[in-house]
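User: My collaborator sent over this chain with a note saying "see what the structure looks like." That's all I know about it. Can you take a look?
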Amino acid sequence: MANLFAYLDTSTDHIIAFPDTLFSRNIVCEIHLSDFSFQNKAHPVFLIEDLFEEAVSKEFYDYHIIATDASKSHSFTSIAGISTLQSFVYRIHPINSIFTAEALAICQALDELSVTDKNLLSLTDSYSVLQALKCLTIKSPKVIHRLAGKIFVRKNFNQKICLVWTPGHSLIHWNEKADLLAKTVTESHPFIEWIASEDIISHFQTISLQKTNHSFENSKYQESIGDIPTMLTPWLKNRRGYHYCTTFNPDDYYSGAIA
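Assistant: Without extra context I'll predict from the sequence alone. Here is the result:
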C-alpha cells in the first residue's frame, strides 16, 4: 500500500472521501440542464450566444456570475474559474478524470470566487457533472458528494445558488474565458493534490489489463492460440483466474516488470 501511494506521489489525506454528512436529500440549489433556449445545441452558435445573453439579462440580472472549466492533456490536468472580480487556475493530479476535474473546478470556484450575500450563478459546460449532482445518491462519485457539501455550506452565505449548463464552444464568453484559462496552465501554477478514489481504481484497472495482455503476448500460448477475441472479454472478466491475473502489484513498478 505504501508503494501504491509512493507511485501516485500522494497520501491518504488527499484522497477524496465521503463528507462527514451526506447531502443526498438536501440539494439546496437550482440546477438547469435544459430549461433555457440557449441550451439547445441544435441552434446555430451565434443564436446560442444571443439567447444566453438574453436569459442572463432576464433571469439572472442580480446574480454574481462565476464560470469554470477543466482541461486534460498529456502534460497537465488543470482546473480554472473566473468571475468579474478575480480568477484562478490550478494543476491537479493527472490521474483525475476530466469529470472529476470539472467537479473540482466548481468546488474551488465556490470557495474562491463567491461573493457573500449575493445570488450566485455558476456556469459550466460539463453536463455530466450537473446531471450527477441532480441525481445524487449514496452511490454517486465522491467528488459529487463533495460538491453537494460545498453548495450546502455556501447556502449559508448566498441567497440563491443556481448551477447552469452552458454548451461548450458556442461563443459564450464566460465559457471561452474559462476554457482558455484552463489551457494556459504551466508547471509554475499551484498544484492541488486532491485525487478521486474512483480515478485511482480506474487507472489501476487499465494498468492491470495492460499487464495481463503483456503477459499473454509473451507467453507460449500466444503463438498457438493467437489474440484472445474481444468477444470473450466480458466472459473472462467474470472468471476467478482473470481477476487473479489482473491483480495489480505496485512492486512491479519498482522491479521494472511494467514499462
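A starting point for your reply to your collaborator: The chain has a mean pLDDT of 82.
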